[in-house]
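worker-03 picked up job from queue 'complexes'. Input manifest follows; three sequence lines, order preserved.
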Amino acid sequence: MTQKTEGGDVRLAGISKTYGAFTAVHPLDLTVPQGSFFALLGASGCGKTTTLRMIAGLEDPSTGTVSLGSTDVTHLPPYKRPVNTVFQSYALFPHLDISENVAFGLRRRGIKSVQKQVDEMLELVQLGQFAHRKPHQLSGGQQQRVAVARALINHPQVLLLDEPLGALDLKLRRQMQLELKRIQTEVGITFVHVTHDQEEAMTMADQVAVMNGGRVEQLGAPADLYENPRTTFVANFLGTSNLIQAEIAATASDVTTVTCGDVKLKLPAGRCRAQTSPGDRILIGVRPEKVSIAHADDDATVPDSRNRLTGRIVASSFIGVSTQFIVDSPSCADFEVYVQNVERDARLTPGTEVVLHWNPEHTFGLDADQAIDAGVQSVEDAS
Amino acid sequence: MTQLSKRPVTWLRRNLVVIAGLLTLAYMILPNVVVMVFSFNKPNGRFNYAWQQFSLDAWKDPCGVADLCGSLALSLQLGFWAMLGATVLGTMVAFALVRYRFRARGAINSLIFLPMAMPEVVMAASLLTLFLNMGAPLGFWTVLIAHIMFCLSFVVTAVKARVMSMDPRLEEAARDLYAGPLQTFLRVTLPIAAPGIAAGALLAFSLSFDDFIITNFNAGSTVTFPMFVWGSAQRGTPVQINVIGTAMFVIAVLVVLGGQLLASRRKNSAAPE
Amino acid sequence: MTLTEARPVKAEPPVHKPSTRKRLVPYWLLVPGILWLLVFFALPLVYQASTSLQTGSLEAGFKVTWHFRTYLDAFGEYWPQFVRSLLYAGTATILCLLLGYPLAYLIAFKAGRWRNLVLVLVIAPFFTSFLIRTLAWKTILADGGPVVDVLNTLHILDLTDFLGWTEGSRLLATPLAVVCGLTYNFLPFMILPLYTSLERIDGKLHEAAGDLYASPATTFRKVTFPLSMPGVVSGTLLTFIPAAGDYVNAELLGSTDTKMVGSVIQSQFLRVLDYPTAAALSFILMAIVLVMVTVYMRKSGTEDLV
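worker-03 finished. Artifact:
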């Protein structure tokens, strides 16, 4: 209902939400630039959905303010905010047909001739021929597109998506990710997308905020988050990281040297997120795909400039494009290595002694005062 | 040979549940058949318990007995107002119970539950005590008050079940799509809760229409249809009672079947082209 | 709000409280209905409790004298009617369960496209007043009618006479007729909750049980029946409670020897006008039923009636 304001960034200033003694979201400052595709990423219960609902107006923040552009909307009810939501499991009205579902928002705002807009919107999501079906007669993917159409037809300043692809199977999810991205580029509206799927967040979003325990752990572009995680949670939650407990041996202007047992490893000083004076404990990490693996017999062929560890292959699994090895090394119990299947070395079978080596540039350092396995996905929390 | 002689036994064992179920159904329908058949009887004397001869007299003149149609009209009226009152009050309570957290929930749940766990005669007697103590004149109003009271709990239960199974996100979606509180209620909540409310209303109507014990205690000299039937069981049962009973039965079956036919036709027309 | 706690935000943001108007909504929704129940259900029970402790006469008026003897006298005089009520209602409840379960099972699992028709046939008799239908039993069970004739030919009535269920080789005006009427009248209250809970059972569970070496009988005993327990509990309660207080069947189909406690309360209240005794009887009945219901619900571990 609010007239459209240009330059509509979503600004959250110190918003928090507490239920009794439980704090779902700790005071939080966040700015979502207009026209961006923004993802809130985290495991279930991390406060991402609560944050989204506070933007939508479905939840009153305990403290703080929500602004759209220059307008403070903290105390506006949801039906007066120029914001629309695509709900988890869609929440399509079961008693209305598809066309009436899509027209719902327009009609509530007193717009009389809605037919043309509804038809156009259904064309955009390629559901023109389903206009007179009831929601339950549609497949999951089709229902999802209706939910998007129903929200987008109102030309909101911000579209909020609450796990919109969670109920779809993997293949359809991939397809819908591209579809949503296409629609977002086409209409140019700010999208705020809540998901627990790190791949989904990274493929779709320009900016990702990783949330954990009601706080934003790190905010940035997907590639930046992946390459330069600042906490073990981010390192483990976004993809996989091999983390090694080590001690700082020497610091130079550009290179930090650490020791782990009798192994010496190097990393760029700029990628150190922790204290950097000799003797301090540190966690260093490297992504599995950056690591090369060589048979122990070929030890001599590994250049000296590379970081190297020795170990024994515990398990290997062949996944088509790559092979994943789990290597037991004195410095790190389950060291993961992904190797592209370009030239496969047939000698690399479980039990084989190997040398792991990688470019020191790819090593990052983290504060040692945090749980090394924070954010690791276990069987229980896989949804 | 043994194969063949075993077959009826196996068949019987396989279909034991079906046979038992159909026998029960027959037990339940039998009195209605008797009522229907005896609506065409021409009894000898005042009571319509033994078959004499076929006659259409009662069907030609269903209101031919003094006070019969008056009591029927009164019961229909009572049923309507009790249904309206209990449905409105009960729906409000059901929504409050499902949608909100507040103090005294447990006590309120018990208050809803108790009338259903109470023999009717106890409620009837205690309500009469109240009316006598207050000096309230017994009649239409006291009966209506009583009917709304005992129908209320059943409406609450029926509506509660429906509202509980309703996805709260639907209302959030409506609010998100520019519907204010009133619009949300009228356009989304009410249509989706409607089947539960309708079931509760129907239950309230039939409970009220068919109630005898509570009515008998609190009606004073007012005579509802069940009270008329009760009285006639002592004085003499006119055939017209059976005519009315049969007509109600047939109308109910036709309405239900018609409704189903309509629903299935609508479903067919909405089916994929 | 203290400032001693370190917070990630520099300035303490304003705290928002939900409005009072919003918090009062549930109460506005509750008040009319709850008030109705308090005034016309709970308050009458209080009045009745006080009436039961009064003495006096219609002419001189009644006064509360804490005369607890009324309870003893009432129970002493009418205990056979209490016993009969519980016995008849209990028997009728068991019969309803035995007769109703197969039909509910039939509707839930076997009826297929006939399901709706059978459901309609179960519910539709409701629309013919139950009094008219109970009177029809007078015709069905009449002396010299086909039912009595058949049972007499088979000498079954001799057996039931011997057991004391019937008398003089007839059905009308006997305990059997009353129980038969009670069973008939409350069968739908058993079948509908049974059907509701049976219908919720996933048919695949039967297949899974069969796959795991359970015979159809074992499947029923170990899977179907336990899962239908909520229906069994609410069905038996919805049958037993009204049956225990019913006097219509006893009056129409029975004799003076089959009078149930409901009849006594009714005649004390409406004909004898001995209000204290009537109120005491009604309270005793309520207490018995509530205690039995509570114990039963505890034992079966359910919270909800319907």
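worker-03 released lock.
Confidence is low (pLDDT under 50) at residues 1-13 of chain C.
Chain C touches chain B through 84 residues (CB under 8 Å).
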